[in-house]
Write a structure and sequence with these properties.
The model has no long low-confidence stretch (mean pLDDT about 90). The protein is about 65% helix and about 5% strand. Strands 1-2 form a two-stranded antiparallel sheet. It has helices at about 5-10, 15-20, 40-55, 60-65, 80-120, and strands at about 30, 35. With about 120 residues, it is mainly alpha-helical. The chain folds into 2 domains: about 1-75, Multidrug-efflux Transporter Regulator, Chain: A, Domain 2 (Orthogonal Bundle); about 80-120. It comes from Streptomyces caelestis.
Amino acid sequence: MKISDASRISGVSARSLRHYEDEGLIVPGRFSNGFRDYCQSTIDRVLVIRSLLESGLPVRLIRDVLPRLADGPDVGTDAVCAEFLHEVQSYRDRLAARIAVLSDQQAALDAYLREARRTALR
């Protein structure tokens, strides 16, 4: 199917499909005129990619794990190796640490604003 059909069926923009290809996440076939040709297995892979991206995983990690995932849009832990789960946990831990730092910064700014408002009202 053409890129417009693949976009409609997958719910992913044509631009994103081209980006996935540029990143080496998918490899669509080609028609004789050079246009991309998307088969159902590529669409299934796009759905997995979209799900992983929406989870916040970086493209690098997705590119590394895609060969180890089962085909299809349902990604179960039984289809994923322990190394990938470790990578996801590590990524999640780094994200949690960043959130903690941002929360501390937000609290400091809130305290500053409270004090500044109290001083301005005097």
